[in-house]
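User: My collaborator sent over this chain with a note saying "see what the structure looks like." That's all I know about it. Can you take a look?
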Amino acid sequence: MQDTMSDQFVLETRGLVKEFKGFVAVNDVNLNIQRGHIHALIGPNGAGKTTVFNLLTKFLPPTRGKILFNGKDITSLKSAAIARRGIVRSFQISAVFPHMTALENIRVALQSFEGNSFQFWKSGASLNKLNERCMELLDSVGLADFADTITVELAYGRKRALELATTLAMEPELMLLDEPTQGMGSEDVDQVVELVRKAAEGRTVLMVEHNLSVVSKLCDRITVLAQGAVLTEGDYQQVSDDPRVREVYMGGTATPKQETAE
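Assistant: Without extra context I'll predict from the sequence alone. Here is the result:
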């Protein structure tokens, strides 16, 4: 049974709880993230979404519960070990160096992934090999023409695309995206939606996203949190039709389809 479950689900949480001095921020959360899916974690302000992400990536230790990755218990691992296993988080904060070029940012990510980020004396041939991979990654997010552009000079949407490329450089099996479209205009949002869809090919994505239009376009499955607990789960139609979801978002006066929410 365990083998079957671990084949189906890349990430599972069992009875995940996080308490802060008596306040329960995450309350008995059970997640089953299916391999190859784009899965959204949504909910109103204070629902516990970011805390769950912090637990999954071990920025915070859980008070109780277990986290399984590919069927193995990773609850006690540190954040660096989690990343080495193949769980990589992006978009929480700017993940790029503003005064480096786009290509240099990708190269730093690649060297970090290979464990030789401080070996600046590497041969020219070795660096050229890295540069080839850098260009492949930049091309995958539509930034091949901006390889030599200083990052601070990139438009906001292109900076987010570069962040995605640095994440992909880590070759994640599970990519955690924290509000990938936050602060974007509609044109940039559409671009990022396509980039996430492309990046999800051959891997699993778990995302926190406020823009429910984005969730409806991208996600195979959605988990709704309210007051730290799972309220409901399903595809977009099931979730948007649930009266409990309407209640926690808008007091029962509208459906999540009609506006975005925190």
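A starting point for your reply to your collaborator: The chain has two domains: 1-86+174-262, 96-171.
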